[in-house]
Amino acid sequence: MIRLAKILVPVDFSDYSRSAVQYGCELAKKFSAEVTFIHVVEDIYPLIADPGMMLATPVDLTRQFREGAEKGLQTFIPAEWLEGLSVKREVLTGTPFLEIVRYAREQQFDLIVITTHGRSGLAHVLMGSVAEKIVRKSTCPVLTVRPEGHNFVMP
Length: 155
Description:
The protein is of the alpha/beta class. The protein has helices at residues 15-31, 58-75, 79-82, 96-106, 121-127, 130-137; strands spanning 6-10, 34-41, 86-93, 111-115, 142-145. It has a single domain, classed as Rossmann fold. It is 42% helix and 19% strand. Mean pLDDT is 83; it is low at 122-127.
């Protein structure tokens, strides 16, 4: 029998990730599972050519991004979706797919529910796919949700 006690839902605050949030909440209700919403703030050091050219230090920017993400995790998810659920929220810093896979392994999640942005062709080659990397590297099952796909959630 499948037992889901801990569900992880990565959130990037896009409309796409709202679909994964809805699935994660519904699954958590059906299985009486704890659901954790996670956002990973990308480490900005590799993106800065010359730190002397910036007005704010990378540490300040990262702190601001983390604070914004923490507030976002409180407001992004409709309250009615969370009713009756045991909910946790986490903000991490680093490379998104690596941090998500590491966190899921360390915290022993039973399932990751993540959205896909549906990129293909050159956009997929240039930008890569966080969801695809998570599917390949995760030690637990991963449910990928396509926002425009079939919706199994009851209205």
